[in-house]
Design goal:
Largest sheet of chain A: 4 strands, antiparallel
Shape of chain A: elongated
Oligomer: homohexamer
Chain lengths: 135, 135, 135, 135, 135, 135
Amino acid sequence: MYAVEVREHIMIAHSFRGELFGPAQAVHGATFVVDVAFFREDLTQDGVVVDIGRAGDALKRALAPLNYRNLDELPQFAGRNTTTEFLARHIFDAMAKAAREGALGPGGDGLARIRVTLHESHVARAWYEGAVADA
Amino acid sequence: MYAVEVREHIMIAHSFRGELFGPAQAVHGATFVVDVAFFREDLTQDGVVVDIGRAGDALKRALAPLNYRNLDELPQFAGRNTTTEFLARHIFDAMAKAAREGALGPGGDGLARIRVTLHESHVARAWYEGAVADA
Amino acid sequence: MYAVEVREHIMIAHSFRGELFGPAQAVHGATFVVDVAFFREDLTQDGVVVDIGRAGDALKRALAPLNYRNLDELPQFAGRNTTTEFLARHIFDAMAKAAREGALGPGGDGLARIRVTLHESHVARAWYEGAVADA
Amino acid sequence: MYAVEVREHIMIAHSFRGELFGPAQAVHGATFVVDVAFFREDLTQDGVVVDIGRAGDALKRALAPLNYRNLDELPQFAGRNTTTEFLARHIFDAMAKAAREGALGPGGDGLARIRVTLHESHVARAWYEGAVADA
Amino acid sequence: MYAVEVREHIMIAHSFRGELFGPAQAVHGATFVVDVAFFREDLTQDGVVVDIGRAGDALKRALAPLNYRNLDELPQFAGRNTTTEFLARHIFDAMAKAAREGALGPGGDGLARIRVTLHESHVARAWYEGAVADA
Amino acid sequence: MYAVEVREHIMIAHSFRGELFGPAQAVHGATFVVDVAFFREDLTQDGVVVDIGRAGDALKRALAPLNYRNLDELPQFAGRNTTTEFLARHIFDAMAKAAREGALGPGGDGLARIRVTLHESHVARAWYEGAVADA
């Protein structure tokens, strides 16, 4: 299996509900360095997994509604804890949809899997990996 | 599949037996930067893979008997080469046991897999990944 | 000149005032990975720059009032933009004060300089470096 | 599953054919930091996945024909785009062949899989992973 | 002294003249991850060292003539070895000129020093640091 | 000022004397990732700070007596705590001596300063920087 991975980042505020989260129940924030890996069984005629220019643009579009925002105020996240692992899945869903809709350009149609990793510090990260067809 | 990963480190001395190891047959040492990844099919009601506070505490407990020690002197490793890959499995076993015994708190009971990675330098690392049930 | 450097991190929310900041005028957040370097001309009798255990504790005390907080709500920052470079200086001041007051333990009294670096993402960081006596 | 991973790097020039590549159609270059991971179900009698000394030597031999070269001029790549993902597979094939031929020394004969990752910058990388038997 | 640092990268081809360079006398290439640090004695009224948006734009303009090029073919480098340290100085000169000409926006006029670091691999890097006035 | 920096690593065992060191008074060990930076006011005729091939060889020679050793047993360290900062100075002295004796090849004779950084984990490092003439 081949894979290519590209990196972006977002800077957000949020808070969590539940005793589990201790001091993180207060409004705080995070820089998430976001890696998106695209998996494909074979290379395209051009010799790539996917057009990383267009894939990178799709990633920027997926992240734009979150970047420099307080996630507690976004309707799409109402009633949810926007944990690192939850956001990894949220971004995965957006990227898998982009792949299925042809928004990733050449190679995007044959992608098998996508993995979205969010690094929240030098000591913690989370990811979600799934088949493009399952999202 | 969701995953969260946390990082700690230990500083140990040891030596290896076998011509394969060349100069590493002498007593030397290593800093191991230890990443433990917890895999789960679904998130808990709180929206997490596992309580990383309690998981981190379990990791500290697993590492404490090794940290600042000469591993050649520990009875649990008698007659074994404490290679990076061997230690990855050793820590995996401790973490999988903690998961099965409920020591990881909420989410710990539904973990599918665990992966333990030990970085021994900027150019070498080793890991062990397995199902929690198999350990 | 000798130096030792230790690392911690904080996760905060804040917003900025001024057109310069564009979308960062909204409430957002950041993970700051914080490196504090202690500089000394000579080593102590123990062969160290400073007791990194006690220096690390002092750093944790300096960061605690900021961690998991919305900095916009903290009275000590009223009317100020809590930019990365501003916060580097804020933490420098706390660490230099700790050094002058003897809170860093052996070696802390002879420190010449301190540098505080805040990494806000994989592509941006800021720091403040100054003499301990000047803070 | 156990794994060990070692790191090397190469510095090459090349160009790409196809509109997809935009400005990268011109002769340019890259540093590829190359990680090769070796996977094995069980450890050898010595307690290792593979002899990393000999595995590292095999990797150096696989990289030598590429290092400090303009890949456009190498006959083995005539008519091909030497993309990061293509090169990951090329190096995988060489390492899998080395494993099958016994060139990796003790442990090399029982390797299940190999993964070759090429980091081309701080924001992009590619890899190929496959079974040793399939190469 | 305050500093902020931003990161970009370029991918270039080149060759070196001189026996010193061994195999690097052939046409090869490099990814240079480029960090530019801006130093200032005091913060601006906005609480920053420099407008990193405009500073980042100036850096992109300085790098554009080099990116995806064979440096051997650029007239500005005729007869020169475009070593990592030479390129660090080249980019420094462009950034210092931008600062003196007011192209960095607010804060750019009061910059004391600039440092340009080029990482050429995981094991080697070079930099040039100088006063803005001296360039 | 120009600089180039190269990286190596060593894996050693040692112990410390003094209550300050807590559990590190026992025999333990460390991986030290060693960065050596060479500073020079101007580039050589070849356009470099120093011949990094020969400088790297000199670094390997300086590290060889330490690598894969228990530092407690080496006569040159008798009665000393081989702390990270102490070792940074030890390696600095060896590299500055090499520079003064012409062992670094072209460019080595005009070096102004050397800095030796030892990374002992992902959260701690130490360094020594000094003039070549002072060592």
